[in-house]
Amino acid sequence: MGSKLAAGVLRRVTAPRVVRHRAAARLIHGLAAAPLLPAGARSSLARRLRAGMVRAGWPAAESRAALVAVAGGVGPAARADLLAQEAADEIAEGRTPAHLTAAVEADLAEADRAYARGDGEAAARRLHRVLHTQFHRVIHFDQLDSPLADDPAAFLAPLHGSAVGRALLTPRGRRQPAAPPPTDRPQRVLLLLNGSAHFVQAIRERYAAHPDVELRYVRLDDDPVAGPLIRQSRRMTAEALLRDTEYGRQVEAWLRPHLDWADTVFVDWAVATAVMVGLVDPGDTRVVVRLHSYEAFGRWPNLIDFSRVDDVVFVSEHLRDFTLRVAPGLTGAHAPRTHVLCNAMDLAPFARPKDSAARFTLGLVGTSAVAKDPRWAVEVLRLLRAADERYRLLLVGGSIDTGMSRAARDYAAALETELAELAPSGAVTRLGHTDDVPGVLTGIGVVLSSSVRESFHCAVVEGAASGAVPVVRDWPFFADGEHGARTVFPADWVVATPAEAAARVRAVTADEQVWRAAGEAAAKHASATWDWSVNAASFDRLLGID
């Protein structure tokens, strides 16, 4: 059958009204897989077949199976493209692709072939697509689980076992080790950031005023040269893989004067900024990178050249444990030193009088991400109100960003349905974003952490510092590990289920004196453990500042 004739026939028969019938779908499937059909036409028709089946209401598994079966009858490059498209379609629907591993392996195989024949551009293009697909936010951020968290080794095996993956992770090293801090002048510290500055504010203020430090603060997103460079992720991937590209030379030209000036570079967030720094030999300048949480579930640990980083700072032991499992560059002969230092937090503003009426108010501070799982907090509230309707829930923070993905929209829709049932009775109040968290906490008697994953959860610490009693979910992403919520916080703060959470809330709020005593103990522990006045010296030691 000629390709034009076949295309014309299949354009008509893949309409939803036709593929709704199983016999017709089997016929179309057979035509699309027919060996007489040119490979290009077969690929196009396979996509059309699946789209028609989806629109006709076929189960997702059957429509996927049809496409994958047809993909088996085309060449490896076309098959990789088909599977990548299938994965993209599934992600667009808010689901983790059932054939994610097959799609990743097919694309990596083609990338390896291109790399072997010297076609670096094609290899980098496919590698970039793999990283974008494998670490898409729908798979790891906008749902309540992640295949990376479930089994890091199995999830990353195709990437780390491929030729392009091995080349990507090959250390470049540095010409010379970092020099010790100067003793005859203030240490020059370059603070680099792209994105949220919330976690560096106290650090920046401390060292801007420190007599033994000369601080330079650079936000890459505000820089006219670095800003455009940091947004070119495809070129960044190509430089990390191929080396000595025009992009790498542009990064070198921008960063070299900063490196020549600085004794120490402190990069907050192990994202594109850290990748860019790792593309350049730092000379004898020391490089420190701090990794918070979400970076470990993205592509960044596979792009950062940790052989050019001297120290990596984590905010918790369980985050370090996990990141060491997903980032090969953090182990081995060229690995940097690793440290655990909690976030810099000024807790004094949270120590305010708390009204007695706050005792029955649960507070969830931070509700804009699916990972915060506010529906878990709603379930705790339902259990409490089944016996005592004085309990209420205050949600503080922006709504879930429904523009990020369909998965986020689906979660947000389910949450809205639950809140709509509770709001009329006054059981739930939504405050939205506020710049006065200490003021809001005066009305909260119990602070919740309902998240599926956290690295540290500053909101719980701030709530504890206010005298609210913490009730912390044993974050499922880390609950089976050696470290987790139970090693970040006192064990009696942590619960495994909504029922356990409700039981703890009842126990600590049944009597006002018990509630106040528990809140005072939490505030004392928070201040003594996590206040910046206690932990600033740890940062001084990290940076080598007397």
Automatic annotation (TrEMBL):
Source taxon at top rank: Bacteria
SUPFAM superfamilies of this UniProt entry? UDP-Glycosyltransferase/glycogen phosphorylase
According to UniProt, the name of this protein is Glycosyltransferase family 1 protein
